[in-house]
């Protein structure tokens, strides 16, 4: 890391831009989206607009991995809600399944379905 005395004027300007960017809660990106620097700031913004769905506000936040993340307008169907509740019960009972096991089971089900179709 260079000291300020060792930096060029352009390097110092870029450093200042980065510091200012880290201090603000949101900025406008090239596509016109409000991009919040934290999920908390994004949630506060959404709570100020209770009459709008997240997609209507054209806003997102930067997650801990540096990726733009969006709250979804998606609402679970009855089947989806049933599956989520079933999963919660399995976790509570200690009957959860690893990702590999879940994939293996799905592949087995799909294999049986293909055999029946042929």
* Count of helical regions: 5
Unreliable stretches covering 5 or more consecutive residues: none
Q: Which range does the strand content fall in?
A: 5-15%
Counting copies of identical and different chains, the oligomeric state is single chain
What does this structure look like?
By secondary structure, the chain is α+β, with helices and mostly antiparallel strands. Helix content is 53%, strand content 10%. The chain has a four-stranded mixed sheet with strand order 1-2-3-4. Strand 3 (59-62) and strand 4 form a beta hairpin. The radius of gyration is 23 Å and the shape is elongated. It starts with 8 loop residues before the first helix and ends with a helix. The relative contact order is 0.07.
Question: Which secondary structure elements does this structure contain, and how are they paired or packed?
Answer:
Blueprint: H1 9-23, E1 26-28, E2 34-36, H2 39-47, H3 54-57, E3 59-62, E4 68-69, H4 78-92, H5 99-117
Parallel strand pairs: 2-3
Antiparallel strand pairs: 1-2, 3-4
Which structural traits does this protein have?
single chain; 4-stranded mixed beta sheet; about 55% helix
């Amino acid at each position: 890391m260079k000291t300020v005395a060792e930096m060029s004027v352009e390097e110092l300007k870029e450093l200042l831009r980065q510091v200012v960017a880290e201090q603000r809660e949101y900025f406008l990106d090239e596509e016109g989206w409000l991009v919040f620097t934290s999920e908390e700031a994004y949630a506060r913004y959404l709570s100020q607009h209770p009459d709008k769905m997240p997609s209507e506000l054209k806003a997102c936040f930067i997650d801990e991995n540096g990726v733009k993340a969006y709250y979804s307008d998606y609402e679970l169907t009855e089947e989806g809600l049933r599956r989520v509740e079933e999963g919660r019960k399995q976790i509570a009972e200690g009957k959860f399944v690893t990702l590999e096991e879940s994939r293996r089971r799905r592949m087995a089900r799909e294999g049986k379905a293909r055999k029946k179709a042929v």
